[in-house]
Structures are given as C-alpha cells and as structure tokens.
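Next up, a chain.

===
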Amino acid sequence: MSESLRIAEQAEELPLRPLSHHLALTVYWLSNSLLWGALLHLGLQSRLSDWYTQDKVGYYLGIMGFVGGSIATVAQIVTGAFSDRSLSRWGRRRPFVVVGSTFAVCGLMFLGAAKSFWPFAGALVLVQLCSNIALAPFTALLPDTVNPREHGKASGFMGVARLLGDIGGLILAGAMLNANEEISQNKVLLVAFHDQRMPLLCGVMGAFMVLTAAYTCWTIRERPLKSRPEATAWQTMIGAFALDVRGYPDFFWLSISRAVTNLGFYMFLEVLFFFIKYSLGHPDPHLGNPNAERTSMYVMLPAILVAAAASVPAGILSDRIGRRPLIFLAQFLLAGAALMFAFAPNLTVVYLGGVPAGIAYGAFTAVEWALACNLLPKGEAARYLGLWNASAAVPQILAFPLAGAIGSAISARVPGLGWRVDFGLASLFCLIGAYFLLRVHERRSPRGQTDAAQETPAAEEQESPA
C-alpha cells in the first residue's frame, strides 16, 4: 500500500475537528470566491468598457472567459497531481497554496496597473494560472484533514464562504469601481479616481488573499509524504489527465450532475436582471423597468441570506441521513423555483420564488462537496478535485453566451419572452442534473464511527506541526 493511500485511509480515524479548523478551511475559499466574484461579475466588464464600445466588448469578454476557464481547468488537474506526490516537509498542500497565492497577488498588481487590453489579458492569465495552482491542493485539505463523518459540516462552511464571497466580491467591485457624485462633478478628480479604481480593487483583494493564505497555512496541520511512486515530472504531468472513469464511475457521474445543474443555476442568475427589466413591471417591454437594478438586488438579497443560512444545517444533516437525498431535493426545489420565475405574472411571485431558490442552492453547494469528498479516489484527492472544480467553472462560462443568445433571439420577436424561456431551460437543466445523480451510489460509513473517531487522539499526534 502506498503511503499517500495510507494517509487517505487514516483520515477515517481522525478526531472530530474544532471550529477553528473548519474556519481555517473556509477563509481561503472566501478570499478566492471574493476575487472571482469581483472580477467575473463586474471588474472585467467595467475595465473592458473603458477600451471598447458595446459592439466589441462582448467579443473580448468571451475570449478572456474561454481562455481563463481552460487555463483554470488544466492548472488545477496538473497541480493537483504534483501535490498528491509532493515530498515537502511542510506537507503536500500548503507549499502550493503559498507559492500560488504569492504569484497570484503579483498578477493582481499587474492587472490593476494595466492600461490597455493585452497587458490586462496577460495579467489575468497569470492570476488565473497562479490562483488555480493553489486552489486544487487547497481543496484537498478537506478530505485530507477532516473525518468523513464531518465532510457535510465542513462543506457547509465552505458553501457559506462561496456564497458570501460571490456577493461580497460583487458589492466590493461595485463600491470601488463607481465614482461618487461629488467626484463626478470635478473632472480632474474624476480622471484621477478613474485611473486608480482598478489598482485599489486589486490591492484590496490581494491583501485579503495574503492574509487568508497565511492564516490557513499556519492553522492547518497535515502529514508530510515520505515516499512516492517513481515518476518523472513529465510523466506526472501527462498522467494527471489519465483519470480512471471506469474505476470511479460514481465520482464522474456526480461531476456531470453538478456541471449540468450549475449550468441551470448560472443561466438562472445571469438572466435575472434582464427578466426583471424587460419581462415584468413595465407597460412597454422595449423600454423596460427603469428600477431593474434595485429590484434585482431586492430579489437576490433574501435569496442569498437564506442560502447562507441553509448551507451549514444542510451539511450537518447530510452527515446523519446521507448526501444524495438532500441533493435531489435541492435540484428539484431549484427547478421548481426557476419555473415560478418563468411563469411569474408579477413581482410578488418572483419574490416568493427567490426564497426556495436560495434554500436549494445553499443546500446544494454544501452537500455536493461532501458527497464528492466521500467518492474521491484515495491518495489522489487533489488531482480529481481539479476536475471537480472545473464542473463549476465551465458551466459558468457557458451560461453567459447560451442564456444571452437564446434570450435576445426570442425577445427580438416576442419582447420579454426569451428571458422566460431561459428560466424554463434552467429548470430543465436542474432536472437533467437530478437524472444523472440517479447513477451515483453513495458510500455510507458504518454507524458508531463518529464515537470511535472522538476516541482516537493518536491520529492527531501523527501530523506535523505547522
């Protein structure tokens, strides 16, 4: 038995972790979600609009999205493979978190300082590459250091961090990329402030990433690997993509289910503003609702709050009753909420539909992670988690052009109808995701293991000090 496999199996004997351990796993995930929430939802669009007009900005945004998503997927899988076989005395994961975060912050500084598209795009590639060098090894810390009996609880905390990071990044970018009214009255101050908006935003995000990476690496303890299988760096890189589909079919079916469900969710999220603006609340659908921005925030805020509130309880509940039933429930609840939006005659129904949508997504993000950790191949967690993370990143990239093209094409013929169709498709994708989940067989730990784990302090002594 290889040492990496032995370490993975010993995770089942670890003691139950204190809250500080779960928070250490959460804060770095929060900073990563904050970073991409700010850049993907507003930062990139704002900067590109400084250089290009409406007829070109979408083209360049699409290029950056495709290239960035491809780099993120490849970087996570390859780095995960190297992390799984690392012999560093600091552990297999933390050195990658330190190195990746350091160079990602350097990339952020270049990103903020860029004055034209190609330097900006190059800096974004550097940020994508380096942040994902850290991400796959970091996510493997959960199955490495947490007893499977607590995977739901740990995933619940990470789900909350993802939600708070997404909305926090959007709010942060919105606050820092918009000049206030007093500055806008002075053209000299406006130009000066405009030039410093992106550097300030990148500086804040970089500082937060440094702090969270330092806290995580100082707090988390992991056992170093003393020996590894013989393989050259080139063999490891090529072998990173030799994923054993037949040997681990449950993990791959879960990844497909997650990807399809996320495609539905991101279609839901991306068309909400256009739906409120053009499909509801105004007698002339061509002009649209003049208060769509504010209304969208009113719909999203309670949904995000209930999602965050549902995440940890859903994760803890899944530790007791199993993961798959709760994921099914979340997928069907999200599909039902999307249908409520598709057929909503007024804003009252939209507000009502936002609550089950939030509960569903909060539960889904918490429990899917826990189930994935239970199904990971032992000893190769980081490599397979690279693929798992791609099952969220790729659907987000695809949702932008798919939802936009369908919504605009249909609404050009019947104003406002295309955005309703998008919600119908989002519901369909969630149901298809549930269908793929039927092929997943959940592993359940034997009863009594929780109590046994609480009585196993020796496992803690085997870990190296931070």
Remarks:
- Residues 179-193, 446-466 have pLDDT under 50 and may be disordered.
